[in-house]
Amino acid sequence: MRYQITGKQIDIGEALQTHVKTELNEAVSKYAGRPTDATVIFSKSAHEYVCEATVHLSTGLTATAKAHATEIYASFDDCCAKMEKQLRRYKRRLKDHHKDRTEPVELFGASSYILAGDHGSEEDEPESLQPMIVAEMEMQIPSLTVGEAVMQMELAGSPVLVFRNEKKNGINVVYRREDGNIGWIDP
């Protein structure tokens, strides 16, 4: 597994990097057979250390966890425990959905835009009806089944996931509704 361990305006020592590699490898290898890479980012927010970890599995799923603590090692340990809990919770589903999959999930490139919000009043008419783009990023759209997409959305903790439906070969969307259920858009 490839590791990328960084700190935002924090110096990360060799001892912490070794601790992260050993503990994360032990936690992930229990529940996921083939992790490909892991990204761990440490930062400081006021008096607390923040640890964000993302692990990509060869099945195409991504597990993400985030934790806060007053000690940097404790923040990582909490984050690792959250990730382990996520993977343990979905272990059976991961095995059921991916037992027939022999290749990693196919990914397609796409652009993602962040548009500026309308902070003016309704009386102010903009000069142009084109929205102002604040940021433009490259995104990956995975090719998944609907069940895998719902599981990926829940693992990532995101409210929405755009994916390419393997069965119909079209772009689909799954999202969490306000009532707690999952919505599926299949154009």
Task: Please give the structural blueprint.
Elements: E1 2-7, H1 14-31, E2 35-45, E3 48-57, E4 62-69, H2 72-89, H3 91-98, E5 107-115, E6 133-144, H4 146-156, E7 160-165, E8 171-176, E9 182-185
Parallel strand pairs: 1-2, 6-7
Antiparallel strand pairs: 2-3, 3-4, 5-6, 7-8, 8-9
Largest sheet: 5 strands, mixed
Shape: globular
Low-confidence stretches: none
Helix content: 25-40%
**Which architecture name of the largest domain does CATH use?**
2-Layer Sandwich
InterPro entries: HPF/YfiA_ribosome-assoc (IPR050574), HPF_long/plastid (IPR034694), RHF-like (IPR036567), RHF/RaiA (IPR003489), Ribosom_S30AE_C (IPR032528), Ribosom_S30AE_C_sf (IPR038416)
Pfam families: Ribosom_S30AE_C, Ribosomal_S30AE
Protein name: Ribosome hibernation promoting factor
Keywords: Cytoplasm, Translation regulation
Key traits:
187 residues; alpha+beta; SHC Adaptor Protein; four-stranded mixed sheet; Double Stranded RNA Binding Domain
What's the short version?
The chain has 187 residues and is an alpha+beta fold.
